[in-house]
Design brief:
Layout: H1 2-6, H2 9-20, E1 26-27, H3 28-35, H4 39-52, E2 55-60, E3 63-68, H5 75-85, H6 96-104, E4 107-115, E5 128-134, H7 136-150, E6 156-159, H8 161-170, H9 173-179, E7 183-188, H10 192-199
Parallel strand pairs: 5-6
Antiparallel strand pairs: 1-3, 2-3, 4-5, 4-7
């Protein structure tokens, strides 16, 4: 039914992919693999979605990436529609919401940040920052599973809350590189990261 409403099976699949992964970018061939549609059809629908303003594009290392425009006025409404239509884990193994749920089964993390390959960027030295504590063996097993699903290595680090706060305060090189690049905040229970970003 939703395909009739939105007029194109490819468009619906793309919307499902984008809306389940806010903050994450995809390049064209990656999208054709994930939604299993023809590249010409994908390019046509990307052009339509760009024209409407639902998605935006960015060039990184001569490769064009696309992601949902979270500033689009109907973003929340569309996300609500498509989250009902198709659960996040059916779209992408490491979609943002699904990834957070899976991480919460192996540890207690106050802050979770995705960067690097998990948001479609090649400029970061790390893909996942976890602030808190975890069951090391279970976390390693989960990361290996995600790597198999994504088809690439996932570089991650676990920091105690005190060290994370200290690194923010002194603006150390590691954190500055991540926060000056492309990243997404999956969790920030204490609000410490958002407060830092508001004043910096």
């Amino acid at each position: 039914m939703i395909e009739q409403l939105f007029g194109s099976k490819t468009r619906v699949k793309l919307l499902q992919l984008f809306l389940a992964n806010p903050g994450r970018s995809f390049y064209v061939r990656e999208m054709t693999r994930k939604i299993d549609e023809q590249i010409n059809s994908v390019r046509r629908e990307l052009s339509n979605l760009l024209g409407i303003g639902i998605i935006k594009s960015d060039s990184v290392n001569n490769k064009l990436y696309y992601e949902v425009n979270q500033g689009y006025k109907h973003f929340k409404a569309l996300q609500s529609i498509f989250s009902v239509e198709l659960p996040q884990q059916d779209i992408s193994p490491a979609s943002q919401g699904d990834l957070l749920k899976r991480l919460q089964t192996v540890g207690s993390f106050d802050v979770v940040i995705t960067a690097g390959s998990l948001v479609g960027s090649e400029s970061s030295d790390v893909d996942l920052i976890l602030v808190g504590s975890s069951n090391k063996q279970k976390l390693e097993k989960l990361i290996k599973t995600i790597e198999l699903e994504e088809g690439s290595a996932v570089r991650y680090t676990v920091l105690p809350p005190s060290e994370f706060k200290y690194r923010l305060e002194i603006k150390d090189r590691f954190m500055s590189t991540v926060l000056n690049g492309k990243f997404a905040i999956l969790n920030d229970e204490s609000g410490v990261l958002r407060k830092f970003l508001e004043v910096n």
